[in-house]
N-acetyltransferase domain-containing protein
Amino acid sequence: MGKTEMMSKEMRQAVLEDVPTILALLQKRIDWMDEKGLYQWNKTAYLTVYPAEYFAERIGENSVFLAMDGDKAIGVIALFDVDPRWDNDKDAYYVHHLATDPAYPGLGREILTFAETYARNAGKEVLRLDSQKVNDDLSRYYEALGYPAVGECIDGAYVGIKREKPLNG
């Protein structure tokens, strides 16, 4: 996959050399969550659960994409064909590890628009994601972007709200 324009930014597939950058970007977002008093990745040992080796494997599967501002990585997203939290009853991509540099407000929406287009072009029916149940602001954000709640999931200490956006209309 080549580069895709996103306003003044662009998306590209991540490569192995991007792993430290991805981890630093995730840590920056985790620090932001702490500063804002949010309960999300900052309370679930995120980078212990998803270490460098995990991201290297996902990159090898061509599942990880970076939002770039010139040579600077400013956002990350992974798109998977299956997700154990879901029944996988629809042809879907599953969004994981969506994070942006807090200095780029609105970038999350742009990355999701990229993911929707990418999934639609791959013939997927829906784009699915989940969000922390106790994060009301994030719930409102996803609902405003067309991702209504369709169920719940529990994965260890994580309790999430499953969300799904149809792509055929």
